[in-house]
Design goal:
- By secondary structure, the chain is of the alpha/beta class.
- It contains 12 helices and 13 strands.
């Protein structure tokens, strides 16, 4: 494990902000063997899609983007089951190597489900109260400031009412929404924090909130599938309220329609009013084959955050992978100090 020391030049004024990054080497033979031992039988409600574990080889560019666009970050907690890229500088002073067994209760391990991992992030030793959670396909694509994620210790987000997603993850989304409605009187919270919902930073999307005004219960919020700002306190509050539900999710080795995910914590912050409105075009999610949008983000700097999602329907990866690498290499040609 790398030492968790912070050199003077890495310090920043005010409350520190950490980044948390989840990664898995889907080609690791030892990991694949262990995964095969837990694969469910046919007809299972558990999701084992390979796209959840495929590696496009773009992780070095993630670290290059952080070093260029967010040099103020205090520490990066790199979360894996215990394997690491050969090119990674494990002794970097800002890097904290975190294995699942270092923070996830033993009874939930091993896990091949991102939900138990993200639902326990607050247990990471040394994690700052303010942190930004990334998947390995979520990038910073333009220069950012600490205040882009937190203002006076309060996370930033968009409160735009929405209907639950109707595809696969929609079941999980509904589970999150149901728990929020059990925890809060949404109508009361909406009135209390009205100007956080009807905020000029959302532009025309404010009309969407007006359309949903007749609904007295929380129907969901726009989930911009990019990095999210959280406080550890939020995680503790939600665990105190819904420990049995979270415990159930954490026991699932693979994704299940019965799960709750990180959006439960995101919704908790929004409905409780513990957020500062963020610009609606701050981040963008697309699939990794959408080179036009990726170029707009990294070359045109149209967005601050970008998610390049893998999809099960994608095939013939190698030509596309080469194009993505060529584009990212043109933007970040120099190795970062996180690379050997």
């Amino acid at each position: 494990m790398s030492q968790m020391k912070i050199e003077p030049q890495h310090k920043m004024p005010g409350q520190p902000i950490d980044f948390v990054l989840l990664w898995v080497d889907g080609d690791d033979p030892a990991w694949l063997k262990e995964k095969s031992n837990y694969l469910p039988g046919e007809g299972s409600v558990l999701n084992t899609n390979n796209s959840r574990y495929r590696d496009w080889g773009i992780l070095p560019y993630w670290f290059r983007s952080i070093e260029r666009y967010a040099p103020w970050v205090r520490r990066i907690h790199f979360v894996t089951c215990g394997h690491y890229p050969q090119w990674l500088n494990l002794d970097h002073p800002k890097l904290n190597l975190v294995r699942h067994k270092d923070f996830i209760p033993f009874r939930y391990l091993p896990t091949f489900n991102s939900h138990p991992i993200e639902n326990n992030l607050h247990r990471i030793s040394g994690l700052a109260e303010q942190f930004v959670y990334f998947n390995d396909d979520m990038f910073i694509s333009s220069p950012v400031k600490p205040t882009d994620f937190f203002i006076n210790g309060t996370p930033r987000d968009c409160a735009i009412r929405n209907i639950p997603m109707l595809y696969e993850i929609g079941h999980i989304n509904l589970n999150d929404i149901n728990l929020i409605n059990k925890a809060f009187n949404f109508k009361k919270q909406y009135k209390k924090h009205f100007w956080k919902w009807m905020n000029y930073r959302y532009g025309i999307r404010c009309l969407q909130n007006l359309v949903f005004t007749p609904f007295i219960e929380f129907t969901g919020a726009k989930n911009t599938h990019v990095a999210n700002a959280y406080s550890k306190t939020t995680f503790s509050e939600v665990w105190d309220k819904f420990e049995s539900i979270l415990d159930q999710t954490c026991q699932h080795k693979f994704r299940s329609v019965l799960d709750v995910n990180q959006w439960l914590f995101k919704y908790w912050q929004i409905v409780s009013g513990n957020f500062v409105p963020q610009w609606i075009n701050f981040g963008k999610a697309t699939n990794i084959g959408d080179l036009r949008t990726i170029k707009k983000a990294f070359v045109g700097h149209k967005y601050k955050l970008l998610c390049m999602q893998d999809c099960d329907w994608m095939s013939n990866m190698e030509p596309l992978k080469a194009e993505v690498h060529q584009l990212l290499e043109s933007v970040f040609p120099q190795k970062s100090s996180f690379e050997l």
